[in-house]
Amino acid sequence: MTKPEQLQTVAVLVPGHFHDHAVERIERTFKRVKIEQADPALVTDDMRRNVRAIASFAGINAGMMDALPNLELIASFGVGYDSVDVSHAAAKNIMVTNTPDVLTEEVADTTIGLLINTIRDLWRAETWLRDGSWVRKGNYPLSRLTLRGRKVGIFGMGRIGQAIARRLEAFDLPIAYHNRRQVEGLAYAYHPTLKGLAEAVDTLISVAPGGASTEKAVNAEILSALGPNGVFVNIGRGSTVDEPALAAALANGTIAAAGLDVFADEPNVPKALLDAPNTSLLPHVGSASEHTRRAMADLCVDNLVSWFTERRPLTPVPETVQVKARS
Questions:
Q1: CATH of 4-100+290-320, one of 3.40.50.10710, 3.40.190.10, 3.40.50.720, 3.40.50.2020
Q2: For 160, what's the count of Cα atoms within 13 Å in the CB-facing half-sphere?
């Protein structure tokens, strides 16, 4: 066990750009080691000997882990960690932590805002005011869609999904969900398949994590099941959506509209989605407030401190929860 005053001897690798508050805390507490990006080819002999932890926005693959034989912990910034090879980490006895809970409410708030923005065309209405159209052309046209009378399905009923559902209850809307398994104690209707959920609702909100099991889960079949009055909102991961199928569904009226905060190849957004008049698009800002990002930064660094002082993580990911600290 390392005493708090000895932490400055612990080398923590920080690839590329990282949150300023997290960097400040790491530099005050540990020995920060800089690297341009998480690329095994950039790892020096000194890093191989001394680095015991990585603090990163993610993107840590097996090769990077193998390049650092003394690596004990990957402190990932964010709730999603699909770009960390957690299976390899578990096999190598490397702990992986993330930053859940502290961003839940912020992301849920953003989801509701994106949903209303998508359905009521509020972003376009504001442009109408700002560009002088209200003066020149009169009132903004009535929105074709409304939140009234909708049935909402949530794909991914974890912490964030449940926070979204609580907010939707205030709108007096029926809620259903699809998960890998039913959540004990939830009164919302459960559908064992995503298609079954899409068939039962007209508003689908995806909060699902990335990874092979959810790759392009929202595809042409799911969008068709959602129907011509359907609205799709994605606040989870861009990889869960077949983007060409979504663009086609928006263009041909298979669904009515989509609100997207995440994309498969960020920051590159498909032109077909950019050009679609029935989309509301955000640049991955679900948790992007100064308040929440600072809390995430603190939790990321707190995991480092806890691991190297008490030899336990605060928020381990499920795949590495059995990893034990080295003596």
A1: 3.40.50.720
A2: 28
Query: Which of the following is catalytic: 19, 52, 237, 293?
Result: 237
> Within its chain, how far is the Cα of 215 from the centroid?
14
Q: pTM for the full model?
A: 0.93
Instruction: Name the active-site residue from 120, 124, 159, 284.
Output: 284
- Per residue in 258-291, pLDDT (tens digit) is 999 999 999 999 999 999 999 999 999 999 999 9
Burial degree of 204 (CB within 10 A; 0-12, 13-18, 19+): buried
Report residue 161 as tokens: 């999904």
Active site annotation includes 266: yes
Instruction: Tell me the CATH number of domain 104-281, given options 3.40.50.720, 1.10.10.1100, 3.30.110.40, 3.20.20.10.
Output: 3.40.50.720
Annotated catalytic residue: which of 27, 126, 266, 310? 266
**284 catalytic, yes or no?**
yes
pLDDT digits (tens, 9 = 90+) for 171-204: 999 999 999 999 999 999 999 999 999 999 999 9
Q: Residue ranges of the domains in the chain?
A: 4-100+290-320, 104-281
Is 237 annotated as catalytic? yes
- The tally of CA atoms less than 13 A away on the side-chain side of residue 128 is 12
